[in-house]
Amino acid sequence: MVQRKRLLYAGFMAILAAGVGLSIRSAIFPLWDKDFSFNDFQKGEIGGGGLTGFCFGIIIGGVIADKIGYGKLVVAAFLLHMVSAFLTFFPSKGMSAENAMFYLKWGSFIFAVANGTLEAVANPLVATLFPENRTHYLNLLHASWPLGLALGSFAALGLGPDGANLSWKLQLGLFLVPTAIYGIMFLGQSFPKSEASQKGMSLGDMFKDVGILGGVVICLLLSMFFIDQFNLPPTYSYAIGGAILLVIALITRFSIGAILLFVLFIAHGLIGSVELGTDTWIQNINGKILTPSQGQILFVYVSLIMFGLRFCAHFIEKNLKLSPIGILFVCSILACLGLNLAAGMNTFPIAMVALGVYAVGKTFFWPTMLAVASDRFPRTGAVAISIMGGIGMMSAGLIGSPGLGFFKDKYAAESFEKTDAATYVKYKKDKENNFVFMKGAAIDREKFNALDKKIEDKKAELQKAGDTKTDPMSVLSAEEKKAIEIDKAAAIEGSRGTLRVDSFLPAAMAVIYLLLLLYFKAIGGYKAVHINAPDTDAEQ
């Protein structure tokens, strides 16, 4: 017997574990600064590794879910979560930045693979269990994500010691609690089959709506992944992507795919960058503009707004008479407005207003998009929504997280140089950061970490001597003190510039959703599609 509510809440706990892990990892960036002297771009790469692996888990899991069963995927995800914990906990203070990067990046990557595998189970499972109201129940399922972010950030705020060697490991280990719970809740359960699987559709039939157009989006991101994660030459990476595209073309008998689904894939790539890419940085950015503790409090605040509102999707859809596309359009405008307001914040109350608007805006993006894909393309089974989730996460990992780190470094360096060009030359990083086709300067964090160490050593020396009057900063020269002050101001300007760049993404999404609103109006309105036969109901 299928227990709908137990499976819903088991999926809830699985996504909660992912949110807790990502939130704590974002919150402990400053502790990694002290242990390994990472710059912002390097931290962005680690954060990106915690997102890109999701694509592999959700796409591969989505393709095979209807064939091998959801239970086996849950077991695989649980084991991968254990492996990720081992790798992430391995680095210790004193290890070189390069070696620490290796373990933390791959630990984050495997963590993301586990999360993606679980979503390959949870999303189609809930869409199948509650076909009468997918928008509501998928939003309810994904209410666990912001709750996980809030719990992780709250834990980091409460536990956050000042850099003891094991402190960040203990904090990260908290994600193992919901991991154990979802394992128990899924244990021994019977799972339903998707509508497509019940109709006996083949994998080729399920892929027809994805087709060559959808395959292009997937394969382009995969090629970028091979370049980024494995350092493969672009020629080889794009050749692999082309080979995968050829396989998709063959199994679909060279189906072009549904144009609407292609547009949804593009839009979800933007959602991944603006929502999840921002999530990996927002605590750090808020902490630079205000204070680190205020940054964490604001992150909890934003996450709790999202958690509460995701229980209201059905109310909004029913009482405000907004279709899922209408909800997405309004949310895009609010997210764009909120990010621009946040770029100008300078006090905690103003930050609450700005980030509150942003939170309302981004609340319904991810789950509502999954509901749209499930409603309009039921014959894809778990395939379309799994690929959509993979595209969102891959975009966040390859573009969103490292991109925001790139612009944060770039704008901070430009502000530093504008303030004092001579001092900037002494503290800039010799090698520029590379992002897509752009290059940008960065401040050398190791030099400032060396200054921080001098201050900490002096502070310890004064405490030992019982001297409470001497300023620990006295150990620095006037030039070094000046450099620290300029760096603090530059970091604030870098954060503001990053938020402004980020706002262009929801602006582009608003244009896409407006066009989709016009499209659905032209065809008689938005409604769910049901399978009649394997070769019918394909939306072009």
Description:
By secondary structure, the chain is an all-alpha fold. It has a single domain (4-210, 258-414, 493-522), classed as Growth Hormone, Chain: A. The protein has 25 helices and 2 strands. It has helices spanning 4-27, 29-36, 40-68, 70-89, 97-129, 134-141, 144-159, 167-172, 176-186, 195-198, 203-207, 211-230, 234-251, 259-279, 282-289, 292-309, 313-319, 324-343, 348-362, 365-376, 383-419, 421-427, 445-465, 478-502, 504-522, and strands at residues 433-435, 438-440. A two-stranded antiparallel sheet has the order 1-2. A hairpin with a 2-residue loop joins strand 1 and strand 2. Helix 21 (383-419) packs antiparallel against helix 24. The longest helix is centred in the last third of the chain and has 37 residues, at 383-419. The chain is globular. The two termini are 37 Å apart. The model is unreliable at 161-166 and 533-538 (pLDDT under 50).
Briefly summarize what is shown.
This protein is mainly α.
Number of helices: 25
How would you state the average pLDDT, rounded? 84
Largest sheet: 2 strands, antiparallel
At the fold tier of CATH, the topology name is Growth Hormone, Chain: A
The CATH superfamily bears the name MFS general substrate transporter like domains
Order of helices and strands: HHHHHHHHHHHHHHHHHHHHHHEEHHH
Low-confidence stretches: 161-166, 533-538
What count of domains describes the coordinates? 1
Question: Structural class of the helices, strands and pairings?
Answer: mainly alpha
CATH C-level class is Mainly Alpha
Distance from N terminus to C terminus (CA atoms, Å) equals: 37 Å
Strand content: under 5%
Q: How many strand segments?
A: 2
CATH architecture: Up-down Bundle
Instruction: Give the overall shape, derived from the CA principal axes.
Output: globular
